[in-house]
Design a protein that fits this description.
This protein is α+β, with helices and mostly antiparallel strands. It has 6 domains: 49 residues, no CATH class; 146 residues, no CATH class; 46 residues, no CATH class; 39 residues, Ribbon (Laminin), CATH 2.10.25; 102 residues, Phosphorylase Kinase, domain 1; 247 residues, Orthogonal Bundle (Transferase(Phosphotransferase), domain 1). The chain is built from 15 helices and 33 strands. It is elongated. The two termini are 45 Å apart. 43% of the residues are buried. The structure holds 2-acetamido-2-deoxy-beta-D-glucopyranose (11 copies).
Length: 728
Amino acid sequence: MILKLCVPGLMILFLLCSVATAMDQSAADSKPGCRDKCGNVSVPYPFGIDESSCAENQYLFLNCSQSDGHGPEKLWFANIPVLSISVLEGLMVVSIFTAYDCYNQSGAKMKETNLSIHLGQGPYMFSDTRNMFTAIGCDTMGFFSNADVTYAAACISSCDEMVSLAHNSSCSGSGCCQTSIPQGLKSLSILSSSIYNHINVSDFNPCGYAFLADKRTFKASDWQLSGLPDGNASDAVIEWVVETKSCEQAGMNTSSYACRNNTNCNYSKNGQGYRCSCKDGFTGNPYLSPGCQDIDECADRQRYPCKGKCKNTPGNYTCSCPMGMHGDGKTGCQGFGIATIASVTGGTISLVIIGVLLYIILRKLRKVKNFRENGGMVLKHQRVRIFSEAELAKATENYNDHKKLGEGGFGCVYKGVLPDNTQLAVKKFKGVDKAQMNEEFQHEIGMVLQVNHKNVVKLLGLCLQTKVPLLVYEFISNGTLFHHIHDKKSQVLRTWTDRLRVAAETALALEYLHSLANPPMIHGDVKTVNILLDEDGTAKIADFGASVLISPGQTDIATKIQGTFGYLDPEYLMTGNLTVKSDVFSFGVVLVELMTGQKPNSNAKSGEKRNVVQDFISSLENNHLFKILDFEADEEELEEIEVVAELAKRCVNSSGVKRPSMKEVSDELSRLTSLHEDLWGQKNSEETEHLLGKSALSFNENASPSMNEPQMAQTVISLEIENYTNSI
Ligand SMILES: *[C@@H]1O[C@H](CO)[C@@H](O)[C@H](O)[C@H]1NC(C)=O
Ligand SMILES: *[C@@H]1O[C@H](CO)[C@@H](O)[C@H](O)[C@H]1NC(C)=O
Ligand SMILES: *[C@@H]1O[C@H](CO)[C@@H](O)[C@H](O)[C@H]1NC(C)=O
Ligand SMILES: *[C@@H]1O[C@H](CO)[C@@H](O)[C@H](O)[C@H]1NC(C)=O
Ligand SMILES: *[C@@H]1O[C@H](CO)[C@@H](O)[C@H](O)[C@H]1NC(C)=O
Ligand SMILES: *[C@@H]1O[C@H](CO)[C@@H](O)[C@H](O)[C@H]1NC(C)=O
Ligand SMILES: *[C@@H]1O[C@H](CO)[C@@H](O)[C@H](O)[C@H]1NC(C)=O
Ligand SMILES: *[C@@H]1O[C@H](CO)[C@@H](O)[C@H](O)[C@H]1NC(C)=O
Ligand SMILES: *[C@@H]1O[C@H](CO)[C@@H](O)[C@H](O)[C@H]1NC(C)=O
Ligand SMILES: *[C@@H]1O[C@H](CO)[C@@H](O)[C@H](O)[C@H]1NC(C)=O
Ligand SMILES: *[C@@H]1O[C@H](CO)[C@@H](O)[C@H](O)[C@H]1NC(C)=O
């Protein structure tokens, strides 16, 4: 659902990006205050029009004027019309007339035009790579030379019967011939002549033509052998350099050097001078101050693929795989992407991610010995109880199936009772490989164990003897918030006051996690299934360990996309960076779910596809909010509900920076709950009784193994423990 929400966002982002770069380029393509277009032809710097100061030098100052004082403006190079200018290639496409000669039936020359072009003193040459000297006709000899005829060449085309050029766009030899031109040609004389004066072909080919053609655009089929000349022109390509000096002569440090910051100097042998180009990874106009700008590759993942954490560097970017991913460092990581995300459905985390997680751990954890020596100490300091294998086996009746509280991809959670009647939730993991540990991990497990908040499920202890590690949590008797929202028989969330309180408590827990440490501890998988209610309905957040391991020393964390569809922060999906604001988003979705009773990750009513968050926002905007509430609200509560709805809306803002912090959210919710305090205080005793009665019932209903969510906190810590165990 959220993915659907974020796809248009993505598109808009790309759109914005391309608009922005397009604007950048056009804005940066001429000197400030100078026109960058003549008619419909772009005039990029170092070229300029209107004022000589608009061009890099006098030779690159072009004339933009109407031809013969009327019509649209045209760009002129001397008296040759310019069709386009390329800064990147150092080329200019111009339109030149053709030379031709025509004869009548008896072979008398009727018309003739020779062509002579001189490119002048400026830094211009005919492009030897793009131009082809071309002659067209059936009894035609095209001839070309430089002005002082130190160089000359020709091509001959003859055919004795009507051929059609129309069928072949390339110059195939029949009715058309071509030859390449040499480097360093600055002047050109072209003439077209005939050997037999077209006598034998005059009925279908009275004229011959000779001209320069641009390889890229020339099409023989544009020419007709039977046609008569009438101002026929062709495209020719002129190469330019910014100065006719070598890069060394240009003197990189002198003020006349045309290339700005972050550029290469490229010498052109044909142009006999240098041009500038942006260094790899930079873009812009290399001639304009301040020079080429770094490309933010990370903003264009299509062109610069990166499936991991993308970091822009000057002139390049790095793409680091989330820990444990295989990757080539550039495009990123195998086994990561939408396909993987898609395989994570409905709240069960797929095996793929477990594999990934395992790999992460295997790679990260070194120094087994160290941990052996110090790990126990860390644990001791944290006053976590070490359970024996036998103790837990007994408590859970040997992991009897009817003690199973939940089951997930990672393993099972069993209910246990100690001889002193303490209730436990014992999480037992499926087998994993051996691995090593490092100090970093010790620090992290220390951090997890520091978590001590009334709204966070507590880790009571560990069992390190077993082959498979066991984690022991306090037992939370009243099931998940998810259950109470969606099971219509549950009375726990009957009133607005109840819902508000649960929301405020959850917010408090998240605020606590976020402020616990620097960098903050990010939960990473906030959802109603991970919020448990204890016997008196107090919310306790579980599964808080996952992100800790992944977050040493960073405020945002590139991770494999983990989490639950529907609750996932779209920005996180896009960037792969988990931030505290990702938790805020997920919490916003929890608020929506709490108010509307709609599951954010399912296609709700009547099978039609809906986006619960989107629906919520549009109901809010259209003042239909009260139609979609899942509980009965009193008149006087409506205003308050609206405040919370607005808060939820801010939390699910697609842009992380626009979301409030967890502290803001928590403060606001606490403020609202405090308004209820008196009222609630009165009801409290009866309410609690009611809750107690209900809790036994609803939990028993739920205690069957059909609950497919591991109810207790998570994975990463426990897997680490397992490795530790195996290494003992
Ligand atoms: C510029 O305008 C002319 C006619 O007005 C048109 O033939 C030509 O294709 C246009 N060129 C570009 C690059 O749009
Ligand atoms: C541009 O060309 C027009 C007509 O060919 C001419 O009158 C004008 O002086 C030229 N301007 C410049 C700046 O060369
Ligand atoms: C061709 O031109 C010549 C010279 O103008 C003329 O004498 C001759 O009659 C013309 N031939 C034809 C077939 O028009
Ligand atoms: C074209 O060049 C040829 C050969 O140099 C010359 O004989 C002819 O008179 C020229 N024609 C024109 C129209 O200048
Ligand atoms: C065009 O000419 C080339 C070279 O003779 C030939 O290989 C090709 O088949 C021709 N194409 C057509 C459409 O006639
Ligand atoms: C042109 O025709 C004449 C006779 O009409 C012939 O002698 C000559 O060889 C032909 N030339 C060519 C190039 O076919
Ligand atoms: C030259 O241009 C005229 C007018 O556009 C056209 O009629 C004629 O066919 C062209 N000549 C060739 C050889 O294509
Ligand atoms: C330009 O200046 C820098 C430092 O000022 C110097 O290292 C470099 O060699 C100079 N380059 C040239 C081509 O003079
Ligand atoms: C310019 O020179 C640099 C470095 O010598 C080279 O990498 C780049 O490809 C050149 N660019 C062009 C357009 O020739
Ligand atoms: C960018 O980084 C990659 C990998 O580190 C390297 O292969 C590549 O050459 C770099 N590109 C540039 C322009 O420095
Ligand atoms: C190049 O960049 C430096 C700062 O990085 C700046 O001071 C300098 O003015 C720039 N040079 C040019 C030619 O724009």
